[in-house]
Amino acid sequence: MSSPNNQATKRVTLWFIGAAVIAYLINFGLGNFVLLAYGLYLLNHFVLVKIIDRFQKNGWPAYQNWYARILEKAVRRPWQILFGVIGLFFFSIVFMIIRAPKVEFFPEADPNFVYVYVTLPTGTDQQYTDNVTQKLESIVAKTVEPDKDIVSSIISNVTVSVTDPTDEDQGDYPNKGKITVAFVEFGKRNGKDTKKIMAKVRESVKGIVPGAQIVVAQESGGPPTQKDISVEIVGDNLDSLTKTAVRLKNYLVKQNIPGIEELMPDVQDNKPQIVFDVNRERANREGITSKQINDALAISIYGVKGADFRNTTEDNYEINVQAKEEQRNDIDALRNLKITYRDFATGGAIRQVPISAFTDIRYKNTYSNIKHKQQRRVVTLGSNVIKGFNANEVNVQIMQAISNFKTPEGMTIRQSGGQEDQTEAMNFLLSALGVSFLMILVILMIQFNSFGKTLIIISEILFSIIGVFLGVSIFGMTITIVMTGVGIIALAGVVVRNGILLVEFTDLLIEQGMSLHDAVVEAGRTRMTPVILTATAAIFGLLPLAVGFNIDFVGLFNSFEPHIHFGGDNVAFWGPLSWTMIFGLAFATIITLILVPCMYLLRTRIKDRLAGRKHDEDAPVTKEELALLNHKALEN
Length: 636
Description:
- By secondary structure, the chain is of the alpha+beta class.
- The chain is 57% helix and 16% strand.
- The strands form seven sheets. Strands 6, 7, 14, 15 and 16 form a five-stranded antiparallel sheet that branches. The chain has a four-stranded antiparallel sheet with strand order 3-4-2-5, with helices on one face. Strands 1-17 form a two-stranded parallel sheet.
- A hairpin with a 2-residue loop joins strand 14 and strand 15.
């Protein structure tokens, strides 16, 4: 006669067989998934259940008793434990300062796209820009030829969508071009580093086109930001600003600061301009106003809406009326453009007079892109930071060099751009951490109605940062301001939850008659299981994100090709946050299980001493009473 357990296993097996048949009829991969689920069920039923049961009966109680003995020793020296942790907190800060880990604003992954931005002198013909861009495209194609197996496309465009996203001006320019190199997805790159390919492209196009500004960059993986290096020169006189910007650029170039790609001012003083000077005396004599002249030129060059055209699908198309292209590009044709008007001086007769009759033409160079901040003119020197160099370190060296630069009177030189964004992000994260800290404080005060117990739990948040500082410093990781900051904020919630478990259970044991000393030890021993389960579940859940573990489940079940690899965009983005929480949780678990009982003991002793009471710490508790207390506590 078979046992009920075997009968249940047979029923489950029949259900899985039926589900597998249906799944295979639907999709081969779905059927494989059902078989895997059945295999996991059998593994759990016949192997894991026995191992776990043996561990829960023998291994885990032994571990709990070992922890209880350590905690017993710790609560006899609560002050030493508290001051030891405080000392470790300051040590972690000093250690991190000594190790000086790199700091970046937002994580950057390997490039999926490499952009080559080409800027020729203002006024350059679009056709010439196209020729230069095609020449550079052929050079780029030759450079990436050895790695063509991971290059999906090379595309170039001129005039439209050619500006760097970090530039404020996103218009169309006939003197600008862009070359885009697109790579295949990370898992298909066979371990090749696209950062090295980008460095090769940068070297190959350097100095190829005289007078052209060529910048090589990758796509932005985070929120829109300004350039990594951005130095503002603020003043009132535009001529002095541009001269100072050029002088500062040459000065910084001579400093040979590593990591700077190419410093470029955002204002050009060689933008060609054609000026129509109106002879007001002649214009007034003809009865022509400056507005009429301006409107005539604007309509000829830019056009004016003439009508709307609607097709059978009721789509509207705007009809724009303007001069022919050859007329728009011919200065003589524009000069001979006739203005039609009614001459009331001759009885209202219709007349046509060329613009040249009352205008003079002159050519001049003017400034482009004049920016204002707080009603003052600003010229910005900007550059990207070459891969492999830390933007913060490069900016520190730049500001040290600028401190020795002679700034003209009435001008101010300051940093903006990425550093400004970084400061704003830090301020936001600090305020978010402060708000979350305050909300946790209020909730705990309402729950416990005790400032001392609230302080015990809140201190866990502060001390859990020790793990973050030590982990980052020991393993030489880069601190990412945004993701590390978010990780610390997320860490606070998990840490507080574990502290609440311990404090609440200690209160319950004391209310049921257990002595203070025995209560903190037994609470730690009993609540060790959920505390460690919470921490380990979170840590193991974050590990795949931290190491960048990737697996193709569709490929695994359909063709048995999982394409397992490590790295990619996910680890670059989520890695800093994951490691922050892993380091913090690992250390916070120790803090919760050792420091919280000690602080609870100290809090009660101090409170009793201030109230003039003597707490009975050695009240005996029998094994039967202890078992009854544990049973009641578990029921609650």
